[in-house]
Amino acid sequence: MTTNQPLSTADRSAGAAGWWEKLKSALLRIGFTPLGLVMLLLLAASPWIPPFNQEHYLRWLIMGAFLAAQSVAFDFTAGYINVVNFGFAAILGLGAYTSAILANTSPVLAIQPGISPWIGIWVGAIVAGIVGLGLGVITLRLRGIYAAVMAWFVGMALLGLARNLVTLTRGPLGMSPETFLDTNANRPYFYIILGMMLVVYITLRLVTRSHIGLAFKAIGQNLDAARASGINPTRYKVLNFTLSCFFAGWLGGFYAHFFGSLTPQTLMHTSKTVEVLAIAYIGGRGSLWGGMVVAFPFVFLTEFIRSNFTNLPGLHLIIYGVLMIAVMTYYPGGLSGAYAWLLSKIRRTRK
Q1: Which of 4, 16, 62, 113 registers the highest number of CB atoms within 10 A of its CB?
Q2: How far apart (Å, rounded) are the C-alpha atoms in residues 224 and 82?
Q3: Which of 68-72, 148-152, 171-175, 215-219 has the highest mean pLDDT?
Q4: CB–CB of 89/272 below 8 Å?
Q5: Which residues pair with 314 in a beta bridge?
Q6: pLDDT of residue 1
Q7: Contact 317, 298 (CB under 8 A)
Q8: Could you give the CA distance from residue 211 to residue 126 in angstroms, rounded to a whole number?
Q9: CA angle 291, 156, 258 (to 5 degrees)
Q10: Whole-angstrom Cα distance, residue 268 to residue 131?
Q11: Helix (H, G, I), strand (E, B), or coil: what is residue 175?
């Protein structure tokens, strides 16, 4: 005969500590810390908290999540294999136009497939991934600036096609794709793009934590040393580029079916790539999460500038440039590097 003895305070403390360590381990596997989880929960709750429950603020939050997801996909290439994809915005636009054309039911375009946007965004992602694969095979045997310039040239070519294939895209006149939802409310779209942002981040974080990610890091740090250790740089670089372009195309589909308006200049211009590049670099190259954190305050800052300094168009790009110079000069690791330095300092003071 046994009796149930109450747990001692030490046993309860040990159990709580074990549960906490398991939670931290599970979060780290998908790229989150407890602080990151708290920030994510606050972000998810923000559309219900004044003043962020107002429609224009909700739209800014949507754009923040949209740019955050882009920065993750961009940093996956720039931060890990050390190749800057200057055609990133054009690849995003390719996914957007593919999905928009597939959803079209209007006679103003040459074809009217009428496919659901929920399916079309995946087709757009696949098309963008295939183009990324082809671009990677052609260009990623090159090194450094040559690969970046070739990606830029391909992006310019895609921009030119979007302008000139007027029977499919209506060119500079733009097209009005079908939206995901039959509502003018922004809150549902925020949760759609928030979910997409998490899918992009968690998927690419899991890749970077695998043996494939180790190969990416080796290639980015020293290509010749990686090749000498038995890694095939071209194969891994093409895989990286394809994944990045796939998610860029997927996000482009969201843009098309959220805004319901597409023009080549507003989506595929190189300046759009520069915005994502600035956010990723200020957040910290190779971190993935740094750009996500930076994207939201940057969108709010940009929209504030656009609203209050209408006579100074492009001022936000100047601010991006100044911040990038400051980061590269004083904090080369960006926000993520500054966070790691602060965390290590706190830990040293506790010892």
Answers
A1: 62
A2: 13
A3: 68-72
A4: yes
A5: none
A6: 44
A7: no
A8: 24
A9: 55
A10: 15
A11: strand
Q: 309: which 2 tokens? A: 């300094």
Query: For residue 214, how many other CB atoms are within 10 A of its CB?
Result: 14
User: How many residues are given for the chain?
Assistant: 351
Name the pLDDT band for 4 (thresholds 50, 70, 90): low
Contacts of 13 (CB under 8 A, 6+ apart): none
* HSE value, Cβ hemisphere, 13 Å, CA-based, for 345: 6
CA–CA distance, 281 with 160 (Å, rounded to integer): 28
DSSP secondary structure letter of residue 178: P
Q: Could you check whether the bond before residue 51 is cis, i.e. omega within 30 degrees of 0?
A: yes
Distance CA 187, CA 177 (A): 20
Contact at 8 Å (CB) between 257 and 121?
Answer: yes
Phi-psi region of 177 (alpha: psi -120 to 50; beta: other; left: phi over 0): beta
User: Residue with structure tokens 């004083």?
Assistant: 330
Q: Taking Cα atoms as reference points, which of 25, 41, 24, 31 lies closest to residue 289?
A: 31
Rounded-to-integer distance, Cα 337 and Cα 84, Å: 20
Contact 101, 110 (CB under 8 A): no
Give residue-wise pLDDT tens across range 309-343: 777 777 777 877 788 888 878 888 888 988 888 88
Q: Residue 96, by phi and psi: left (phi above 0), alpha (psi -120 to 50) or beta?
A: alpha
pLDDT digits (tens, 9 = 90+) for 91-107: 999 999 999 999 999 88
Rounded mean pLDDT, 50-78: 95
The DSSP element (H or E) to which 335 belongs, if any, is helix 334-350
Domain boundaries, the chain: 53-272
**Integer CA distances (angstroms), 276 to 2, 74, 84, 99, 139, in order:** 65, 7, 11, 22, 21
Q: Any idea which of 13-22, 27-36, 38-47, 61-70 has the lowest mean pLDDT?
A: 13-22
What per-residue confidence (pLDDT) applies to 214?
93
The total of other beta-carbon atoms located within 10 Å of residue 15's CB is 11
